[in-house]
Amino acid sequence: PALPTQWKTGAVKGLRARGGFDVDLAWKDGALSKAVIRANCDTPCRLRTQTPVKVFSGNKEIKLKSPGENLIEFESRAGETYRILSTNK
Q1: Distance from C-alpha of 45 to C-alpha of 89, rounded to nearest angstrom
Q2: pLDDT for residue 21
Q3: In terms of CB atoms within 10 Å, which end of the chain has fewer, N or C?
Q4: What are 31-83's pLDDT values in tens digits?
């Protein structure tokens, strides 16, 4: 929702997120299509998204918690990389 409507499709790399995460994002038609999150410390990672997603570390799908509306959470470990993929077709 923070993207201007003119930016229907795009990507950004190297964002620093609260909690010690580096983030790369890509979106299509105004919705998240994929993201890569690199954890810099052992801490829960919380994502707010209206797009249904799956989270992977390597080829393993990560179990997600849903502590609130449009909010997911998973345990992250320092040095690990997590791929977030939209499950929308």
Answers
A1: 25
A2: 97
A3: C
A4: 888 999 999 999 999 998 888 899 999 999 999 999 989 899 999 999 999 99
